[in-house]
Amino acid sequence: MQELAEAVDSSASMEGKLYEGGEDYQKEFDPKDYLKTYYAFDSGTVAENEILKFNLENLFQAFTSEGVGGDILIDIGTGPTIYQLLSASGAFREIFATDYTEQNLRELERWLKKEPGAYDWSPAVQYVCEMEGDRSKWQEKEAQLREKVTRLLRCDVTRLHPLQPAQVPPADCVLTLLALESACPTVDAYRAALRGLAGLLKPGGHLVTMVALRCQSYMVGAKKFFALYLEKETVEKAVQEAGLQVLRCTYSPISYSDTCSVNEGVCFVVARKGPGA
Questions:
Q1: I need a labelling partner for 120 at 20 to 30 A (CA). Which of 144, 159, 231, 266 fits?
Q2: How far is it, in rounded angstroms, from Cα 89 to Cα 131?
Q3: Homologous superfamily of 2-273 in CATH?
Q4: Phi/psi of residue 70, nearest 5 degrees
Q5: Domain map of the chain by residue range?
Q6: How far is CA 12 from CA 6, 8, 9, 148, 220, in A?
Q7: Phi and psi dihedrals of 39, rounded to 5?
Q8: Which segments are annotated as binding site?
Q9: For residue 39, which of 113, 101, 139, 121 has the smallest C-alpha distance?
Q10: Rounded CA gap, 181 and 185, in Å?
């Protein structure tokens, strides 16, 4: 009976465990579980599909009609995903993908190299191609992106220089979606991380970011991970304090499924570094 009670206590303890950044993220985050939970585009996960579409549509707008483009884009916290780079692939000469964990970069590499078992992104790619005017060109879009991603780098946004020891030229755009909320333990750390990302930009360069608002946690498989609680106003102020001008902040009340994440709304921000910054 004592052994059974100890087993129950241990199980309950595991169920309630909240994994946080750093070592927890490195050891416990499973990219395949993450992809299955949030990016199964045709699986009937309505809330997750709506947020993915929100991102794809806002990214398309930023990298086409809003004219965000140039030589180099650095994606901070790419994770195992490529959807955020699809529209960008037509606007930049090179893309540097970065992440904190080796397993995420390895999953990304599988797709880039078309290895067996690589995640199938074709539904998202077709959605972007439809916005561009020809859904049938999705294979060309995938080939374009594979050609444009020239570097896979480790990053740590809690450091003053998030890409050290790698040397990178000043970027025309820094992109970061749904990454800082997981990596930053406090609002002060979030502000500092944005200052670090602004430091990667050349004068006149753009920051493009999407944030899940009022988030407390998110699930990856059966594991619960920490997420920083942020209000829309906090995000805008932090971007401005990093020396950037907010050009657009698009809010939507859409949220993830209750079983996936605890959050209220999302916002998408396009900002620009001043010419003399």
A1: 266
A2: 14
A3: Vaccinia Virus protein VP39 (3.40.50.150)
A4: 145, -150
A5: 2-273
A6: 10, 6, 5, 46, 18
A7: -130, 25
A8: 34, 39, 83, 99, 104, 156-157
A9: 121
A10: 8
Q: Quick one: tokens of 205?
A: 């360069």
- Per-residue tokens: 245: 């001008």
Q: In whole angstroms, what is the distance from residue 75 CA to residue 72 CA?
A: 10
Digit-coded pLDDT (tens) for 160-186: 999 999 999 999 999 999 999 999 999
Please report the pLDDT score of residue 49 as a whole number: 93
76: closest CA among 166, 137, 187?
Answer: 166
Higher pLDDT, 216 or 8: 216
pLDDT tens digits, one per residue of 55-90:
999 999 999 999 999 999 999 999 999 999 999 999
Per the document, the length of the chain is 277
Q: Which amino acid would we find at residue 145?
A: L
